[in-house]
Design brief:
By secondary structure, this protein is α+β, with helices and mostly antiparallel strands. Helices cover 31% and strands 34% of the residues. Strands 7-6-5-4-3-11 form a six-stranded mixed sheet, with helices on one face. The longest helix has 54 residues. The relative contact order is 0.13.
């Protein structure tokens, strides 16, 4: 008989097998490595999600800017009367056939970003302190400093201006 064979309680022979198991150090090391890989994976997914979200917001704001410029230009060119108030922060337009100034664009301060509003509706995100409506030499100019979104603070501002020659005269009121 070899020394590795023993009799069990039922009379049969069996061989002693070496028990295999992970030590505490091996378990901790593998858990740490798995945790680091999981953390890196979640960070990459989070970064991709934020990048896609920011890009989508910026794309939406660009589309809104194009639409806003189209409507402002069209409304200024077809206006019966135009009035600029609040030191260049509000543009009021009287349409042909209406009794009063029924269209109103205003540069509104808000947090975390300011915005251009049509009536009470938020149109595009801007910096209010650097944006205004001006009228000089028969040209109405809309100067806007646009920002990327209405979520972040201290964003880089991009200048944007539109010059439109209205068919009517413009009144400046403070």
């Amino acid at each position: 008989r070899q020394h590795s064979e023993h009799k069990n309680i039922y009379g049969g022979d069996f061989k002693m097998r070496k028990k295999r198991a992970f030590t505490l150090v091996e378990t901790l090391m593998s858990s740490g490595i798995f945790g680091m890989i999981a953390l890196i994976g979640l960070s990459v997914i989070s970064l991709m999600t934020w990048t896609l979200f920011s890009g989508q917001i910026e794309s939406t704001n660009r589309s809104s800017l194009d639409e806003t410029v189209y409507y402002i230009t069209r409304e200024i060119q077809s206006a019966e009367k135009i009035k600029i108030t609040d030191s260049g922060k509000t543009l009021q337009i009287k349409e042909r056939g209406s009794s009063g100034y029924n269209l109103k664009y205003s540069i509104t301060e808000g947090y975390p970003s300011d915005y251009l509003a049509f009536g009470d509706r938020r149109m595009i995100d801007i910096a209010a302190d650097e944006s205004c409506f001006t009228y000089e030499n028969g040209i109405l100019e809309v100067e806007l400093k646009t920002v990327k979104n209405n979520i972040e603070t201290n964003q880089r501002r991009k200048p944007f201006s539109v010059s439109v020659r209205p068919r009517c005269e413009c009144v400046w009121e403070d």
